[in-house]
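Fold Annotation — chain and its backbone

Fields — amino acid sequence, C-alpha coordinates

___
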Amino acid sequence: MDVEVTRSQVGGHSRAPPSKSYTHRAVLAAGYSDGATVADPLVSADTRATMRAVEAFGGHVDRETGDRRLDVEGFDGRPGVPADVIDCANSGTTMRLVTACAALADGLTVLTGDDSLRSRPQGPLLDAVEQLGGRGESTRDNGQAPLVVGGGVDGGTVSIPGDVSSQYITALLMAGAVTDTGVTVDLETELKSAPYVDITLEVLTEFGIEATETADGYRVPGGQTYDRTEAYAVPGDFSSMSYLLAAGAVAGGDDGVVVEGARPSAQGDSAIVDVLERMGADVAWDRAAGEITVRESALSGIEVAVDDTPDLLPTIAVLGAVADGDTRIVDCEHVRYKETDRVRAMATELEKLGAEVSEERDTLTVHGNDSRLRGATVAGHDDHRIVMALSVAGLVAEGTTTVEGADHVDVSFPGFFDALYDLGAELEKHER
Protein backbone atom coordinates (compact mmCIF):
# COMPACT_ATOMS: atom_id res chain seq x y z
CA MET A 1 0.00 0.00 0.00
CA ASP A 2 1.09 3.55 -0.78
CA VAL A 3 -0.27 6.63 1.00
CA GLU A 4 -0.52 10.14 -0.39
CA VAL A 5 -0.25 12.85 2.26
CA THR A 6 -1.10 16.42 1.27
CA ARG A 7 0.00 19.41 3.28
CA SER A 8 -2.54 19.68 6.09
CA GLN A 9 -3.24 21.18 9.48
CA VAL A 10 -4.17 18.70 12.18
CA GLY A 11 -5.81 18.98 15.57
CA GLY A 12 -7.91 17.20 18.16
CA HIS A 13 -7.56 14.19 20.42
CA SER A 14 -5.84 10.91 19.58
CA ARG A 15 -4.94 7.89 21.67
CA ALA A 16 -1.52 6.30 21.66
CA PRO A 17 -1.43 2.61 20.78
CA PRO A 18 -0.30 0.18 23.49
CA SER A 19 3.43 -0.31 23.83
CA LYS A 20 5.00 -2.83 21.48
CA SER A 21 7.99 -3.31 23.79
CA TYR A 22 5.81 -4.05 26.83
CA THR A 23 3.48 -6.30 24.83
CA HIS A 24 6.33 -8.50 23.58
CA ARG A 25 7.69 -8.94 27.08
CA ALA A 26 4.32 -9.45 28.74
CA VAL A 27 3.20 -12.08 26.22
CA LEU A 28 6.43 -14.03 26.61
CA ALA A 29 6.37 -13.65 30.41
CA ALA A 30 2.84 -15.06 30.37
CA GLY A 31 4.19 -17.86 28.18
CA TYR A 32 6.85 -18.68 30.77
CA SER A 33 4.10 -18.88 33.43
CA ASP A 34 1.39 -21.50 33.73
CA GLY A 35 -1.06 -18.92 32.48
CA ALA A 36 -1.77 -15.19 32.66
CA THR A 37 -3.85 -12.45 31.04
CA VAL A 38 -2.38 -9.48 29.16
CA ALA A 39 -4.80 -6.54 29.03
CA ASP A 40 -4.73 -3.72 26.46
CA PRO A 41 -2.01 -5.36 24.32
CA LEU A 42 -0.75 -4.11 21.00
CA VAL A 43 -1.90 -6.68 18.45
CA SER A 44 0.35 -6.04 15.45
CA ALA A 45 2.50 -7.96 13.00
CA ASP A 46 5.46 -7.97 15.40
CA THR A 47 3.59 -8.99 18.54
CA ARG A 48 1.68 -11.68 16.65
CA ALA A 49 5.08 -13.21 15.90
CA THR A 50 5.78 -13.47 19.64
CA MET A 51 2.33 -15.00 20.19
CA ARG A 52 3.08 -17.63 17.54
CA ALA A 53 6.38 -18.43 19.25
CA VAL A 54 4.66 -18.98 22.61
CA GLU A 55 2.29 -21.39 20.89
CA ALA A 56 5.16 -23.15 19.12
CA PHE A 57 6.73 -23.83 22.52
CA GLY A 58 3.55 -25.46 23.80
CA GLY A 59 1.49 -22.54 25.07
CA HIS A 60 -1.70 -21.08 23.70
CA VAL A 61 -2.82 -17.48 23.15
CA ASP A 62 -6.59 -16.98 23.13
CA ARG A 63 -7.36 -13.97 20.95
CA GLU A 64 -11.12 -14.51 20.87
CA THR A 65 -11.60 -11.57 23.24
CA GLY A 66 -10.22 -9.19 20.58
CA ASP A 67 -7.58 -6.56 21.04
CA ARG A 68 -8.55 -5.71 24.62
CA ARG A 69 -7.24 -8.89 26.22
CA LEU A 70 -5.05 -11.89 25.55
CA ASP A 71 -5.55 -14.98 27.70
CA VAL A 72 -2.28 -16.89 27.60
CA GLU A 73 -1.91 -20.51 28.58
CA GLY A 74 1.80 -20.82 29.29
CA PHE A 75 4.35 -23.60 28.94
CA ASP A 76 5.21 -23.28 32.65
CA GLY A 77 8.89 -22.48 32.58
CA ARG A 78 10.29 -24.97 30.12
CA PRO A 79 9.45 -24.68 26.41
CA GLY A 80 8.74 -27.73 24.35
CA VAL A 81 10.53 -28.40 21.07
CA PRO A 82 8.53 -26.78 18.25
CA ALA A 83 7.03 -29.07 15.64
CA ASP A 84 8.02 -26.64 12.89
CA VAL A 85 10.26 -23.68 12.14
CA ILE A 86 9.36 -20.48 14.03
CA ASP A 87 8.88 -17.62 11.58
CA CYS A 88 9.57 -14.31 13.36
CA ALA A 89 8.57 -12.33 10.23
CA ASN A 90 10.08 -8.84 10.60
CA SER A 91 10.28 -8.83 14.40
CA GLY A 92 13.82 -8.56 15.75
CA THR A 93 12.47 -8.45 19.30
CA THR A 94 10.70 -11.77 18.78
CA MET A 95 13.76 -13.45 17.34
CA ARG A 96 16.07 -12.34 20.12
CA LEU A 97 13.71 -13.07 23.01
CA VAL A 98 12.77 -16.41 21.51
CA THR A 99 16.40 -17.40 20.85
CA ALA A 100 17.15 -17.44 24.57
CA CYS A 101 13.88 -19.22 25.28
CA ALA A 102 14.69 -21.89 22.68
CA ALA A 103 18.03 -22.51 24.41
CA LEU A 104 16.08 -23.91 27.38
CA ALA A 105 14.56 -26.73 25.32
CA ASP A 106 16.25 -30.13 25.19
CA GLY A 107 15.86 -30.37 21.42
CA LEU A 108 16.54 -27.87 18.66
CA THR A 109 14.52 -24.90 17.44
CA VAL A 110 14.93 -23.30 14.00
CA LEU A 111 14.22 -19.55 13.81
CA THR A 112 13.90 -17.52 10.65
CA GLY A 113 12.26 -14.34 9.35
CA ASP A 114 11.88 -12.10 6.33
CA ASP A 115 14.72 -10.71 4.22
CA SER A 116 15.29 -7.76 6.56
CA LEU A 117 15.35 -9.86 9.72
CA ARG A 118 17.72 -12.38 8.14
CA SER A 119 20.25 -9.54 7.68
CA ARG A 120 20.29 -8.39 11.30
CA PRO A 121 23.05 -9.34 13.78
CA GLN A 122 22.38 -12.21 16.17
CA GLY A 123 25.96 -13.44 16.66
CA PRO A 124 26.57 -12.09 20.20
CA LEU A 125 23.40 -13.76 21.48
CA LEU A 126 24.30 -17.06 19.81
CA ASP A 127 27.72 -16.83 21.43
CA ALA A 128 26.06 -16.19 24.81
CA VAL A 129 23.92 -19.31 24.40
CA GLU A 130 27.05 -21.34 23.76
CA GLN A 131 28.76 -19.80 26.80
CA LEU A 132 25.85 -21.23 28.80
CA GLY A 133 26.51 -24.67 27.36
CA GLY A 134 23.78 -24.60 24.73
CA ARG A 135 23.86 -24.73 20.97
CA GLY A 136 23.50 -21.49 19.03
CA GLU A 137 24.31 -21.52 15.34
CA SER A 138 23.68 -19.46 12.25
CA THR A 139 22.95 -21.77 9.32
CA ARG A 140 25.01 -19.51 7.06
CA ASP A 141 27.74 -19.10 9.69
CA ASN A 142 27.43 -15.31 9.49
CA GLY A 143 25.70 -14.53 12.79
CA GLN A 144 22.38 -14.01 11.03
CA ALA A 145 19.18 -16.04 10.74
CA PRO A 146 18.16 -18.74 10.04
CA LEU A 147 19.26 -19.86 13.51
CA VAL A 148 19.46 -23.27 15.15
CA VAL A 149 19.18 -23.08 18.94
CA GLY A 150 18.80 -25.55 21.81
CA GLY A 151 20.70 -27.56 24.35
CA GLY A 152 18.70 -27.28 27.56
CA VAL A 153 20.90 -24.64 29.23
CA ASP A 154 20.71 -24.49 33.02
CA GLY A 155 22.39 -21.16 33.76
CA GLY A 156 25.83 -19.63 34.12
CA THR A 157 27.74 -16.45 33.34
CA VAL A 158 27.98 -14.79 29.94
CA SER A 159 30.06 -11.94 28.61
CA ILE A 160 28.36 -9.95 25.87
CA PRO A 161 28.68 -6.55 24.16
CA GLY A 162 26.13 -3.96 25.21
CA ASP A 163 26.39 -1.69 22.19
CA VAL A 164 24.71 -3.88 19.54
CA SER A 165 21.29 -4.62 21.02
CA SER A 166 19.81 -4.38 24.52
CA GLN A 167 17.43 -7.15 23.42
CA TYR A 168 20.22 -9.67 23.99
CA ILE A 169 20.22 -8.79 27.68
CA THR A 170 16.43 -8.86 27.87
CA ALA A 171 16.36 -12.33 26.31
CA LEU A 172 18.96 -13.74 28.71
CA LEU A 173 17.29 -12.28 31.80
CA MET A 174 13.85 -13.60 30.87
CA ALA A 175 15.15 -17.09 30.16
CA GLY A 176 17.64 -17.09 33.02
CA ALA A 177 14.94 -16.83 35.68
CA VAL A 178 13.74 -20.39 34.99
CA THR A 179 17.17 -22.02 34.70
CA ASP A 180 18.54 -24.03 37.62
CA THR A 181 21.32 -21.65 38.63
CA GLY A 182 20.34 -18.34 37.06
CA VAL A 183 22.25 -16.15 34.62
CA THR A 184 24.80 -13.42 35.19
CA VAL A 185 25.32 -11.03 32.27
CA ASP A 186 28.64 -9.18 32.19
CA LEU A 187 28.74 -6.32 29.70
CA GLU A 188 31.88 -5.95 27.60
CA THR A 189 30.95 -2.46 26.40
CA GLU A 190 28.67 0.38 27.41
CA LEU A 191 25.00 -0.58 27.20
CA LYS A 192 23.05 1.17 24.45
CA SER A 193 19.27 1.52 24.73
CA ALA A 194 19.44 0.94 28.49
CA PRO A 195 15.82 2.04 29.10
CA TYR A 196 14.64 -1.05 27.23
CA VAL A 197 16.32 -3.23 29.85
CA ASP A 198 14.58 -1.12 32.50
CA ILE A 199 11.29 -2.04 30.80
CA THR A 200 12.29 -5.70 31.06
CA LEU A 201 13.09 -5.41 34.76
CA GLU A 202 9.72 -3.70 35.32
CA VAL A 203 7.80 -6.47 33.53
CA LEU A 204 9.77 -9.19 35.31
CA THR A 205 8.86 -7.65 38.66
CA GLU A 206 5.19 -7.58 37.65
CA PHE A 207 5.39 -11.34 36.99
CA GLY A 208 7.11 -12.10 40.31
CA ILE A 209 10.66 -12.42 38.97
CA GLU A 210 13.65 -10.93 40.77
CA ALA A 211 16.44 -9.52 38.60
CA THR A 212 18.98 -6.85 39.48
CA GLU A 213 21.60 -4.60 37.99
CA THR A 214 25.18 -5.36 39.06
CA ALA A 215 28.46 -3.47 38.86
CA ASP A 216 29.27 -5.22 35.57
CA GLY A 217 25.81 -5.86 34.12
CA TYR A 218 22.80 -7.81 35.35
CA ARG A 219 21.95 -10.89 37.39
CA VAL A 220 18.80 -13.02 37.54
CA PRO A 221 18.69 -15.88 40.08
CA GLY A 222 17.48 -19.26 38.85
CA GLY A 223 14.69 -21.48 40.06
CA GLN A 224 12.07 -18.75 39.85
CA THR A 225 8.47 -19.04 38.69
CA TYR A 226 6.61 -16.55 36.51
CA ASP A 227 3.32 -15.82 38.24
CA ARG A 228 0.64 -13.19 37.69
CA THR A 229 -2.86 -13.53 39.13
CA GLU A 230 -4.26 -10.17 37.99
CA ALA A 231 -4.33 -9.11 34.35
CA TYR A 232 -1.21 -7.24 33.31
CA ALA A 233 -2.12 -3.91 31.67
CA VAL A 234 0.14 -2.70 28.84
CA PRO A 235 0.92 1.05 28.95
CA GLY A 236 0.76 3.43 25.97
CA ASP A 237 3.68 3.42 23.53
CA PHE A 238 5.89 6.51 23.49
CA SER A 239 7.74 5.41 20.35
CA SER A 240 4.50 5.44 18.37
CA MET A 241 3.25 8.49 20.24
CA SER A 242 6.25 10.47 18.99
CA TYR A 243 4.76 10.72 15.47
CA LEU A 244 1.47 12.16 16.77
CA LEU A 245 3.34 14.63 18.97
CA ALA A 246 5.58 15.64 16.07
CA ALA A 247 2.50 16.14 13.90
CA GLY A 248 1.14 18.50 16.51
CA ALA A 249 4.41 20.42 16.72
CA VAL A 250 4.73 20.97 12.96
CA ALA A 251 1.09 21.15 11.84
CA GLY A 252 -1.07 21.38 14.95
CA GLY A 253 -2.21 25.00 14.68
CA ASP A 254 -3.33 26.93 17.75
CA ASP A 255 -5.55 24.16 19.13
CA GLY A 256 -2.89 21.50 18.75
CA VAL A 257 -2.97 17.74 19.21
CA VAL A 258 -3.81 16.04 22.50
CA VAL A 259 -2.39 12.53 22.84
CA GLU A 260 -4.08 10.32 25.43
CA GLY A 261 -2.64 7.23 27.11
CA ALA A 262 0.66 8.89 27.97
CA ARG A 263 1.14 7.78 31.55
CA PRO A 264 4.73 7.65 32.87
CA SER A 265 6.59 4.34 32.62
CA ALA A 266 10.15 3.08 32.15
CA GLN A 267 10.03 3.87 28.42
CA GLY A 268 13.07 5.84 27.35
CA ASP A 269 11.20 7.23 24.36
CA SER A 270 9.22 9.48 26.68
CA ALA A 271 12.31 11.65 26.08
CA ILE A 272 10.45 12.93 22.99
CA VAL A 273 8.66 15.37 25.32
CA ASP A 274 11.99 16.82 26.46
CA VAL A 275 13.23 16.97 22.85
CA LEU A 276 10.17 18.95 21.81
CA GLU A 277 10.54 21.32 24.77
CA ARG A 278 14.21 21.91 23.97
CA MET A 279 13.33 22.67 20.34
CA GLY A 280 10.85 25.30 21.52
CA ALA A 281 7.56 23.48 21.06
CA ASP A 282 4.51 24.46 23.06
CA VAL A 283 4.06 21.13 24.85
CA ALA A 284 2.46 20.22 28.17
CA TRP A 285 2.30 16.79 29.82
CA ASP A 286 -0.41 16.12 32.38
CA ARG A 287 1.13 12.99 33.86
CA ALA A 288 -1.76 12.24 36.21
CA ALA A 289 -4.28 12.32 33.35
CA GLY A 290 -1.87 10.70 30.90
CA GLU A 291 -2.33 13.45 28.31
CA ILE A 292 0.22 15.40 26.29
CA THR A 293 -0.83 18.54 24.42
CA VAL A 294 1.41 20.01 21.71
CA ARG A 295 0.69 22.98 19.47
CA GLU A 296 2.30 24.10 16.23
CA SER A 297 5.43 26.02 17.16
CA ALA A 298 8.51 27.69 15.74
CA LEU A 299 11.20 25.07 16.32
CA SER A 300 14.95 25.49 16.68
CA GLY A 301 17.63 22.91 15.96
CA ILE A 302 19.38 21.18 18.86
CA GLU A 303 21.79 18.30 19.46
CA VAL A 304 20.21 15.05 20.61
CA ALA A 305 21.98 11.84 21.63
CA VAL A 306 19.95 8.72 20.79
CA ASP A 307 22.19 6.07 22.34
CA ASP A 308 19.31 5.16 24.69
CA THR A 309 16.43 6.12 22.37
CA PRO A 310 17.24 4.82 18.87
CA ASP A 311 13.61 4.61 17.76
CA LEU A 312 13.26 8.38 18.06
CA LEU A 313 15.80 9.14 15.33
CA PRO A 314 13.31 9.24 12.41
CA THR A 315 10.96 11.54 14.34
CA ILE A 316 13.74 13.91 15.41
CA ALA A 317 15.12 14.02 11.87
CA VAL A 318 11.74 15.22 10.56
CA LEU A 319 11.49 17.84 13.30
CA GLY A 320 14.97 19.01 12.33
CA ALA A 321 13.91 19.47 8.71
CA VAL A 322 11.25 21.96 9.86
CA ALA A 323 13.33 23.70 12.53
CA ASP A 324 15.61 26.73 12.22
CA GLY A 325 19.31 25.92 12.36
CA ASP A 326 20.98 22.53 12.58
CA THR A 327 19.65 19.48 14.38
CA ARG A 328 22.48 17.04 15.16
CA ILE A 329 21.50 13.50 16.08
CA VAL A 330 24.54 11.87 17.66
CA ASP A 331 25.45 8.44 19.09
CA CYS A 332 23.35 6.81 16.40
CA GLU A 333 25.52 4.14 14.77
CA HIS A 334 23.48 1.33 16.37
CA VAL A 335 20.38 2.75 14.67
CA ARG A 336 21.82 1.38 11.43
CA TYR A 337 21.05 -2.18 12.61
CA LYS A 338 17.28 -1.90 12.90
CA GLU A 339 14.72 -3.07 10.32
CA THR A 340 16.79 -1.02 7.92
CA ASP A 341 19.73 1.38 8.22
CA ARG A 342 17.52 4.14 9.59
CA VAL A 343 20.30 6.73 9.51
CA ARG A 344 20.87 6.26 5.79
CA ALA A 345 17.16 5.83 5.05
CA MET A 346 16.17 9.11 6.70
CA ALA A 347 19.02 10.98 5.06
CA THR A 348 18.08 9.63 1.62
CA GLU A 349 14.34 10.22 1.85
CA LEU A 350 14.49 13.64 3.50
CA GLU A 351 16.80 14.78 0.72
CA LYS A 352 14.14 13.71 -1.80
CA LEU A 353 11.75 16.01 0.05
CA GLY A 354 14.13 18.93 -0.20
CA ALA A 355 15.95 18.72 3.13
CA GLU A 356 19.67 19.36 3.40
CA VAL A 357 21.27 16.51 5.34
CA SER A 358 24.80 15.52 6.35
CA GLU A 359 25.46 11.90 7.29
CA GLU A 360 28.39 10.47 9.24
CA ARG A 361 28.79 7.03 10.73
CA ASP A 362 27.57 8.06 14.19
CA THR A 363 25.87 11.39 13.42
CA LEU A 364 22.98 12.64 11.31
CA THR A 365 22.71 16.41 10.87
CA VAL A 366 19.66 18.06 9.35
CA HIS A 367 20.24 21.64 8.21
CA GLY A 368 16.88 23.28 8.78
CA ASN A 369 17.80 26.69 7.39
CA ASP A 370 18.74 25.10 4.07
CA SER A 371 15.69 22.82 3.91
CA ARG A 372 12.46 23.55 2.06
CA LEU A 373 10.20 20.54 2.12
CA ARG A 374 8.21 19.82 -1.03
CA GLY A 375 6.13 16.84 -2.01
CA ALA A 376 7.86 13.86 -3.59
CA THR A 377 7.64 10.08 -3.80
CA VAL A 378 9.62 8.54 -0.94
CA ALA A 379 10.40 4.93 -0.01
CA GLY A 380 9.31 3.49 3.31
CA HIS A 381 12.21 0.98 3.27
CA ASP A 382 9.85 -1.73 4.61
CA ASP A 383 10.22 -0.02 8.00
CA HIS A 384 7.25 1.14 10.05
CA ARG A 385 9.17 3.98 11.73
CA ILE A 386 10.48 5.39 8.45
CA VAL A 387 6.95 5.30 7.00
CA MET A 388 5.40 7.14 9.93
CA ALA A 389 8.13 9.77 10.15
CA LEU A 390 7.95 10.55 6.43
CA SER A 391 4.18 10.81 6.65
CA VAL A 392 4.57 13.49 9.31
CA ALA A 393 6.96 15.31 6.96
CA GLY A 394 4.23 15.14 4.32
CA LEU A 395 1.98 17.25 6.53
CA VAL A 396 4.27 20.27 6.04
CA ALA A 397 5.80 19.60 2.61
CA GLU A 398 4.43 21.72 -0.22
CA GLY A 399 2.05 19.71 -2.36
CA THR A 400 1.58 15.96 -1.99
CA THR A 401 3.99 13.36 -0.65
CA THR A 402 3.63 9.70 -1.63
CA VAL A 403 5.00 7.22 0.92
CA GLU A 404 5.60 3.80 -0.61
CA GLY A 405 5.14 0.61 1.39
CA ALA A 406 2.96 2.36 3.94
CA ASP A 407 1.30 -0.89 5.06
CA HIS A 408 4.38 -1.60 7.19
CA VAL A 409 2.85 0.55 9.95
CA ASP A 410 1.06 -2.69 10.90
CA VAL A 411 4.27 -3.68 12.70
CA SER A 412 3.69 -1.28 15.59
CA PHE A 413 0.80 1.13 14.91
CA PRO A 414 -1.81 -0.49 12.67
CA GLY A 415 -4.21 2.43 13.07
CA PHE A 416 -1.67 5.17 12.36
CA PHE A 417 -3.19 6.51 9.16
CA ASP A 418 -6.70 6.34 10.61
CA ALA A 419 -5.42 8.39 13.56
CA LEU A 420 -3.85 10.99 11.25
CA TYR A 421 -7.03 11.17 9.16
CA ASP A 422 -9.17 11.65 12.27
CA LEU A 423 -6.90 14.54 13.28
CA GLY A 424 -7.65 16.22 9.96
CA ALA A 425 -4.80 15.11 7.73
CA GLU A 426 -5.59 15.01 4.02
CA LEU A 427 -4.48 11.58 2.88
CA GLU A 428 -5.41 8.79 0.51
CA LYS A 429 -4.48 5.11 0.59
CA HIS A 430 -3.71 3.26 -2.62
CA GLU A 431 -3.40 -0.52 -2.76
CA ARG A 432 -0.67 -1.77 -5.07
Q: What stands out?
A: The CA atoms of residues 78 and 104 lie 6 Å apart. The radius of gyration is 21 Å. Residues 238-251 form the longest helix (14 residues).
